Amino acid sequence: MRLDRFDRQLLNLVQEDAAQTAERLAEQVFLSPSAVQRRLRRLREAGVIVRDSAVVDPRQVGRPTFFVVSLQVERERPELLAQLRQWLAAQEHVQQAFYVTGEADFVLILTAPDTETYDALMARMVSDNPNVKRFTTNVALSVVKRGLSIPVPLDEDED
């Protein structure tokens, strides 16, 4: 799908705040509210916008601790990796899971109310996934930045 400058502007704006009204977005991109709605619907239907979500303060909902986990597997057989991916995707504490190059095979971002909850999750992961060789954990002392926004250049040839 080709994105024009208006699409790109809208993508940046809705990533910043998806709750903005079509009227407010229209003011910022100089289109009519109905044109904004049509464009957003087309971007969703094409799979450019995958999901709208709210950003929640983890402390307000009892999830104040973040864990960054590097995970190594024993064997990289496709069926074993698929099983682990499926297991990770089903865990509510796993916010993000990346299959990566380098020493680790996966990097995970988890949130939990405390280390006991985290320990229980990791014990279950190792028990349920015998292909897990080892993992190392970093506990986040503070959050400097947290987000999922993808910078969308306004022009197709910009970096």
From TrEMBL:
Superkingdom of origin organism: Bacteria
BP GO annotations: regulation of DNA-templated transcription; response to amino acid
Any one GO CC term of the record: cytosol
SUPFAM superfamilies: Dimeric alpha+beta barrel, Winged helix' DNA-binding domain
Pfam families linked: AsnC_trans_reg, HTH_24
Gene3D superfamilies attached to this UniProt entry: 3.30.70.920, Winged helix-like DNA-binding domain superfamily/Winged helix DNA-binding domain
Keywords: DNA-binding, Transcription, Transcription regulation
Domain HTH asnC-type: 3-64
GO molecular function, one term: sequence-specific DNA binding
PANTHER family (alphabetical): LEUCINE-RESPONSIVE REGULATORY PROTEIN, TRANSCRIPTIONAL REGULATOR AZLB
Protein name per the record: Lrp/AsnC family transcriptional regulator
Native source species: Lysobacter silvisoli
High-level lineage: Bacteria, Pseudomonadati, Pseudomonadota, Gammaproteobacteria, Lysobacterales
